[in-house]
Amino acid sequence: MNRMRFILGLISAVFMVAQSSWAATVYVSDSFEITLRTGPSIENKVIAMPSSGQPLEVLDAQGDWTQVRMHKPDGDTVEGWVLTRYLSARLPWEVQAETLNAENASLKEKLAYAENGVKEARVREQDLARKLKENTKALEDVRAEYDSLRRRAADYLKLEAAYEENRSKLETAESDVNRLIEEVKQLRSSKRNRWFLTGALVLFTGLIIGLVFGRQSRRRRSSYY
Question: Is the pTM of this model over 0.90?
Answer without folding.
Answer: no
